[in-house]
Amino acid sequence: MNRIQGWMALLIAAVLLAGLAGCGEAPEMPEGEPAAETAPASTPSAVATPRFESGMIPPAIVIPTVTPDAASATELPDAVTIAMIAKSSTNPVFLSARTGAEAAARELSERHGVTITIDWRTPPTEDGQVQAQRIAQAVNEGADAILISSSDAAKVTGAINDAVARGVPVMTFDSDVPESARFAFYGVDDIQTGQAVMRELAGQLGGAGRIAILAGNQNAPNLRRRVQGVEQEAANHPGIEIVGVFYHAETPQDAAAEVLRVMNAYPDIDGWAMIGGWPLFTTTLLTDLNPEEVKVVSVDALPAELPYIEAGIAPVLLAQPTYLWGYVSVEKIIDKLMGRDVPEMNRMELVRVTRENLGEWARQLRDWGFEDVPEQYLQME
């Protein structure tokens, strides 16, 4: 058994124990408009079950498991529709989640002899009000369950509660709505994620330097908590100075432009704590940032971001296995519809991606259906 396979065995056991442990503590976290289907070039293709047995999964990924049919208390209807409402249809991380959800739907359809459909209702750009409208639309059109990553918890709480009151269970992923009637959440601990980003960046800077925080949508509860985590951890490093927290529209172009704007305003910045990988989905910063002068640590590690590791600009990326947002969440929703117990809090662990495990991670991305993983990384040991 190789090192990664050994980790996998331990992780599977840990996940099974976690499922028995029950619930954890919740984190603080125009009608009729058609859902957008726009996808950028870095869109994963539809694939069958990810090859978890391949030994390619780096440590700390939560392995999805299927509850045995014998535990079922309720039969599923012949057709099940799960409305999936992510933050934006132009963000590659949510397209990855969609692919995972559709893969789980295919598997579980075959397993249970029913038809499970993922109804993608994600708006093209972040808008909590549009998300609320699409929750209501999904309920009115007969959805059996709803899966959502919230752009603005305050704007969707009422719609979630209304859906649940009408008998439609709601689960959240990535960005929780803990004050709502949603039955479960799947995602990272955002405070710990921010702390991890800052801890890694402090290590890259030798414990001293001026840094900036790139923070995405100011209204997203998960991102606010990640910023909080960065600030908490920075307080443990007296040599670190935060020059500011910088919010922006969550597109690669807007994020990269904000980084360059801030670098012009503060040319002595030594590092960036990026609580999302938005600007790394473009090649702009590969030429505009000097790895000898500026270091980046970022959340997420999708194919377009991997060259930043190789270039030394982002020596560490903390990957969210975003495919599993969809895959695991659909499993949990089906369990809920079948009357099984589902823990309220379902934690996703980050994966630390560096030059040392870049090849393993690249191959995992390929197994999850990403067709644009650079070949040179697939060939790495």
Written description of the protein model:
39% of the residues lie in helices and 16% in strands. The protein is α/β, with parallel strands linked by helices and 381 residues long. It folds into 2 domains: 28-51 and 66-188 and 326-349, 3-Layer(aba) Sandwich (Rossmann fold); 190-319, Rossmann fold (3-Layer(aba) Sandwich), CATH 3.40.50. Helix 2 runs parallel beside helix 10 (322-337), helix 3 (128-140) packs parallel to helix 4 (153-165) and helix 5 packs across helix 6 (221-234). The longest helix is centred in the first third of the chain and has 21 residues, at 92-112. The model is unreliable at 1-64 and 66-72 (pLDDT under 50).
Count of DSSP helices? 12
Order of strands, widest sheet:
2-1-3-4-5-11
Residue share in β-strands: 15-25%
CATH class of the largest domain equals: Alpha Beta
- Given as residue ranges, the uncertain stretches (5+ residues, pLDDT < 50) are 1-64, 66-72
Let me know the CATH homologous superfamily of the largest domain. Response regulator
Short structural description:
With 381 residues, the chain is α/β, with parallel strands linked by helices. It has helices at 3-21, 92-112, 128-140, 153-165, 190-204, 221-234, 252-265, 284-288, 306-310, 322-337, 358-367, 375-378; strands spanning 79-85, 115-120, 145-148, 170-173, 184-187, 208-216, 239-247, 271-274, 295-299, 316-319, 345-347, 351-353. The chain has two domains: 28-51 and 66-188 and 326-349, Rossmann fold (3-Layer(aba) Sandwich), CATH 3.40.50; 190-319, Rossmann fold.
